[in-house]
Specification:
Structural class: mainly beta
Shape: flat
Length: 749
């Protein structure tokens, strides 16, 4: 046994949120009622919106399982309101009901007839046949409604398309395909080509290589009069051709304003002649008149409960958590205990209640919410339900003006303090936005700033500021008188790398989001270092870019964690850390995290606990381990005050069904000790996979063989050794592991 170290005194408790944001439509389709379906690549989903812009439903998540998507691209709706979606990464087509119920899938990467490689556009004819642009095989595949392969057709002197993407079918069954590679002047590339329903060539037109206007077509639609609409991605416009291939109309230009495009993909036209255009970089579908090309409106949605670059955070007296969801230009409100979504408000813009990069959030004693609207250079004030109250500020350097306001805090008298980031100062206002005072200037001496970010005010009126560019904390009186400073650039305790959000607990201790060090540090109010928690990573209790910090009445710490390096894949979440009460599980690791069904385990899985007693007396407790909430072991222990002890469980998992198991550890009191919390810690996810499935995609294929071959000859302890390639768990990657993959090659879950 060893005495516990000085830290950490905070442990991971729970989290919520994942990446999500405004829709990024790759493909657009319409049903007979005028509802709009979006192949949403940003949210790995299909979104359904009424023609008037009302959000109806959404389905899908990131992955390769049934109903999951990795890059939804083409989308089509048949006469029975079935929805077909191509996924260019999962190499398949999935079929759903109009409400998102999964109905089936077909095809995967391969070279046999009916197999798909990077499928793109999709369309359905009046007989229910599904046409898929199979870009990787440079052909169009024709399938029956249930996915049964019928035939394929190709194009050009070489028998191939060059870079086909969009496809549309008219009421007579003629098929239109765009082919966007204008670098190959073979008489077909860069054009729209018309075929019979069986794939016989009819005509080709429109590309710049044939003297036409089309630069990079990436989406087609045909109306009831046989006019063809082309989403010209390279020219940022829509081009309309009549049935004789003559250009009738062109509308759109590069930009982000209504009626402008940033590389449009996908186009659809309804029975009233309205044209719907997917504009993924501008995150919306735009609606135009087919006769004049005039802009009508835009439709979009933002997935509630999901986050994109969450920054500032605050907790009110009722335990509600408010998050500045920066890239989604909104504020979201959550239940602090469950993380369940409560409400949200805001959208991109500069009108009241709209945002352009909201950064800081604060709550006053009356429950009002203050938000720094950074790129609109103002502060907005709301009721707790998002009802707009007022706004103040505009761009400038004078009193009451802002240049990218960032952090915000409210004192006990409801005075509002704002870090005016690019003006390198702090401004103080009353709760109505009337200017009171300001202090600070650009520099690195005491009282100066270099990009101030977070701000907090303690019960005595002392003001703390994270001086991010100078990698320090500065402390001031309520009127701006300099009191103290601490910190410098570095990764050791008490040093910082771009500190951002800060918050104070009930004892007046300061918590700092040490953003680029991937941790949170705790200090006494005089700057004395107390502890730190968090490391860089994607796991529970780990951070990539911790930016915002908030405290509740029980001194739980809420940290917003963004993943700027690989957006869309991880973090973009809120993590909650709880103070340790007496005995607690401070760490839980597994000897390995993968097993394969059908493989006899040479060694059981070892669960290694570290349990510490931070209390002042001996404690008796249960140490328990769980897999998906089911107990897999327990021990009754007594631990002396100030002592840490490792605890080992052995877990035999050979009988487990395939799936993912969430491993947790917990300390539970034997008696009703009010200071002994039911501390829970995450151990990680344990995977039981199909025998030979190393990649975890539920199939045994060449990817798994490559994983084994690439690690062949490595033994446990070698840097390049990977436990998930050691299929029989004997500590060696050898011919036995190759044989396991080979013996199960081609198997699917």
């Amino acid at each position: 046994m060893v005495a516990p170290s000085s830290g950490p005194t905070y442990g991971y408790s729970r989290q919520w949120g994942s990446f999500g944001g405004p829709s990024a439509p790759n493909g657009v389709a319409l049903d007979s009622s005028g509802n709009v379906y979006i192949a949403d690549s940003q949210n790995y989903a299909v979104g359904k919106i009424a023609k008037n812009g009302t959000f109806l439903t959404m389905w899908g998540s990131q992955g390769s399982g049934q109903g999951q998507l990795k890059n939804p691209l083409g989308i089509a709706v048949d006469s029975g309101a079935n929805v077909f979606v191509t996924d260019s990464v999962n190499n398949n087509v999935q079929k759903f009901s109009s409400t998102g119920n999964f109905l089936g899938t077909w095809n995967s990467n391969g070279t046999s007839n009916g197999m798909l490689l990077h499928p793109q556009g999709i369309a359905v004819n009046s007989s229910g046949y599904v046409y898929v642009v199979d870009q990787g095989h440079q052909q169009v595949g024709i399938f029956r409604n249930d996915g049964t392969f019928a035939r394929y057709f190709r194009l050009g002197p070489s028998g191939n398309f060059t870079m086909a993407l969009g496809i549309a079918i008219d009421s007579l069954g003629f098929v239109y395909v765009d082919d966007d590679n204008t670098s190959v002047n073979d008489g077909f590339s860069g054009n729209v080509t018309k075929f019979t329903r069986n794939g016989s060539f009819v005509s080709s037109w429109g590309g710049v290589n044939l003297g036409g206007p089309i630069l990079w077509p990436q989406g087609l639609a045909v109306d009831s009069s046989f006019n063809v609409y082309v989403a010209d991605n390279g020219a940022n416009r829509i081009e309309k051709f009549d049935s004789n291939h003559r250009l009738q109309l062109s509308f759109g230009s590069p930009g982000t304003l209504p009626g402008q495009f940033s590389y449009p993909i996908g186009v659809a036209v309804d029975s009233q002649g309205n044209v719907f255009v997917g504009d993924p970089i501008n995150f919306n579908v735009q609606l135009f008149s087919s006769t004049t090309g005039s802009y009508i409106t835009s439709v979009s949605y933002q997935r509630t409960g999901r986050l994109s670059d969450p920054y500032g955070s605050a907790v009110d007296s009722s335990g509600n958590v408010y998050i500045a969801d920066r890239d989604n230009n909104r504020v979201q409100k959550f239940n602090s205990l469950t993380g369940s979504f409560l409400t949200a408000w805001g959208m991109p813009g500069n009108r009241t209640g709209q945002f352009n990069t909201p950064s800081g959030v604060a709550v006053d004693r009356n429950g009002n919410i203050y938000v720094t609207d950074s790129n609109n250079n103002r502060v907005q004030k709301f009721l707790s339900d998002g009802t707009f109250i007022k706004a103040w500020g505009s761009f400038g350097t004078g009193n009451g003006l802002f240049y990218f306001p960032s952090g915000i805090a409210v004192d006990n008298s409801n005075n509002v303090y704002v870090t005016d980031n690019s003006n390198d100062r702090v401004e103080k206002f009353d709760s109505s936005g009337n200017f009171i005072s300001a202090w600070g200037s650009t520099g690195s001496t005491n009282g100066q700033f270099n990009g101030p970010q977070g701000i907090a005010v303690d019960s005595t009126g002392a003001v703390f500021v994270s001086d991010s560019g100078n990698n320090r904390i500065e402390k001031f009186t309520t009127s701006g008188g300099f009191l103290a400073t601490w910190g410098s650039s570095g990764s050791q305790n008490g040093m910082f790398s771009s500190p951002m959000g800060i918050a104070l607990d009930s004892m007046g201790n300061l918590f700092v989001a040490d953003t680029f060090n991937g941790r949170v540090q705790e200090f006494a109010g005089n700057g004395t270092f107390l502890t730190a928690f968090g490391i860089v990573g994607l796991g529970n209790g780990q951070f990539v870019n911790p930016e915002g910090v908030a405290m509740d009445n029980s001194d739980n710490v809420y940290v917003t964690d963004d993943n700027l390096l690989t957006p869309g894949t991880a973090n973009n979440r809120v993590e909650v850390f709880a103070p340790f009460h007496d005995t607690a599980v401070t760490s839980l690791t597994l000897s390995r995290y993968t097993a394969y069904s059908g493989v006899t385990l040479v060694q059981p899985v070892a669960l290694n606990f570290m349990i510490s007693n931070f209390g002042l007396s001996n404690e008796t407790f249960w140490a328990r381990a769980f897999a998906n909430g089911t107990s897999i072991g327990q021990q009754n222990l007594t631990l002396a005050s100030g002592v840490s002890q490792p605890v080992l469980f052995s877990w035999f998992s050979s009988s487990l069904a395939r799936g993912t198991y969430n491993i947790t550890g917990q300390v539970q009191p034997v008696s009703g000790d009010p200071n002994l919390a039911n501390n829970i810690i995450q151990g990680g996810l344990f995977y039981v996979r199909l025998k030979g499935d190393i990649s975890g995609d539920c199939r045994v294929n060449i990817i798994d063989f490559s994983n084994v071959a690439g690690k062949f000859g490595k033994n446990i302890g070698d840097v390049a050794y990977r436990a998930d390639s050691d299929l029989n768990n004997d500590g060696k990657i050898n011919i036995a592991d190759v044989a396991i993959v080979g013996g199960n090659f081609g198997s699917n879950c």
